[in-house]
# Entry
Amino acid sequence: MIGHRKDLLGLEDLSAEEITSILDTGRTFREVLDRPIPKVPALRGLTAANLFFEASTRTRLSFELAEKRLSADTVNFQTSGSSVSKGETLRDTARNIEAMGIHLVVIRHQASGAPHYLARILNAGVINAGDGTHEHPTQGLLDIFTIREKLGRIDGLRVAILGDIMHSRVARSNIWGLTKLGASVTIAGPCTMMPAEVERFGVTVAKNVDEAIEGSDVVNILRIQLERQRAGLYPSLREYARVHGVTRERLRRAKPNVVVMHPGPMNRGVEIAQDVADGENSVILEQVTNGVAVRMAVLYLLAGQHAPAESATEATPTVEAVKR
Amino acid sequence: MNRPIRIRGGRILDPARGIDRVQDLWLDQGRVAGLGEDAPAALRNRPDVEVIDATGAIVSPGLVDIHVHLREPGQEEKETIETGTAAAARGGFTTVACMPNTSPPLDDRPHVEYVVRRAREHGLARVLPIAAVTKGQMGEALTEIEDLVEAGAVAFTDDGKPVRNAEIMRRALELTRPLGVPIIQHAEDPDLKGSGVMHEGWVSTRLGLKGIPDAAESVMVARDALLAELTGGRVHVAHISAARTVDIIRRAKARGIQITGETTPHHLILTDEAVAGYDTNTKMNPPLRSSRDREALIEGVVDGTIDCLATDHAPHTDIEKDNDFDAAPFGIVGLETALGIYLKALVEPKHLSLSDLILRMTRKPLEVLGRAGGTLEAGFDADVTVFDPAQRWTVRASEFASKSRNTPFDGWNLSGRVLLTVVGGRVTYRAEAEARVS
# Structure
């Protein structure tokens, strides 16, 4: 369990202790992933549904893999703006979930707060796999997990988060999680993509990318969405790359062993230079691997609340069962 | 014909005439016959008078709400003239002005006449239709303003949308000036609003919801104030939500510009913090704003910059509101909770006296429309609201007379229970004795 929670909706809601317990459990599962048969029976008998109302490849695959590695049964539901309005789909889908006896729901939705809506009406546990421009808690957790693996701690680190903060659910989850664990977070990006009163997150707003990178232990580079240009938030990709793109040159201002992260998918040559993406400080592929472990941890910890009633003692997973 | 009515022993509050005293109110032939001994002796001696006891209660002129969406014609699943005016009666309102963003919109004589007729046949309140400024509310061609006034239109608005084009706004102000009716502006710059769903600020940042800056409202009010100055026409700003708007109107009034304004119960009592749980009953347009804005609205109401109070009663079905925040429509119902919310927001914290609140819910809104009434003076319409300001009650959306239940106040405990509503000498609402206590 994460506290006594039914759902994981955002890192804003979690305490430092809860986050740490997820990270610690994630490390156990990270070891499982290196075994010859990387699979444990922890969630046998439970069914997880992956509801993706918005296109996603890596997050959906990562969750599905995490569920399978835990021996859960999985069903997938994907939609992309069908003839039914999204609202009808969401409510009707919720009713179907209730009817099918699903224990855990993983939801990705274009509307901020959609997982909260589902969590309110469902008995099943709800995991937010990214809601609009709100939060992406498992991405935040896997980023923090990766930093901790690399640098051994979070407390006292200087983390720079760069790019489109306003529309980034990754930024929000990272900011909540990192600041709760004692990191100092500096953000930078175009003024048009800096949300109102952003300093109230407890972050420092740097004048520009260079100032944010200065002396940092971690540089997390956000993806720039091409549609933001159409909305007039930046003039051109060329201008964006020139003013905000992270290059090897710019990275020299960071600490020598700086950890470079990107939640993907990358626009190489725009927000991140090719040689930075593939450079020796980049942990971008490790983020992907760690993502499976962290999602296993979240599924496992929430599943404690949703074990099938008739075989609760047998099916409720224990850390011992996982470690064996 | 209804029997004469004697409302006995209540505290008569008629702020338009500065009256505040315990006296009987006599109603006859659909009109106010007089207070106490001033009522004709012949009436006081009649045997068929219906006596209604109002001891301990306030007897005020009927409440007036000049911003109501009755949804008829075309959106009867949300509300009808019958259910909307029943909600009005239950909330103590005797007159409501209805917005033209129906489908089709009230942009020609037949549709305005339809509303007038339906209200006469089925209404439990007086219904004053407000007609569209532009045909189809498309913002392009003006409606037949004089014909519509003849048909019964009391004001013009494209509410739901602003009159975006400054040239059209100018011409509308010029054409309405000689008629003495205002243009009611839903002030919102559509480009600045964009796809925003709540106030732009720390809460929208935290929730990841697209913000609507306060300037979306204020820039258009500033423009309209200048157009009112240019034309000598009269602008009324609907549902003011932002501190900057209050400031602009205050300055414009000081310059002698004919501009008036209203605000709503929800903007006076809630802030954007209420959106934190993504409850779609906190989604309205204009959005709930910051506590600084809320304080400025209260100041504006107190000093008269904001002339009157209105609800922006905006019914939507459960199906529409039961949704994610982005997808749900803007708006909440207000008629059945307005009095209690205003008492809580304005009178209980002693920002306004009870009498000053009643003034802003009776005479003032009628003045905005250039109409007489809003008083218990003999000869005026027998429109009366009796309420007990101290009596506690609990909001139960399931018991609303409105067809819709979209309120953020469900379950709230409020003071100020409406006991009786009378329109033209006819009782339109009477609280059941057992329902009074909660």
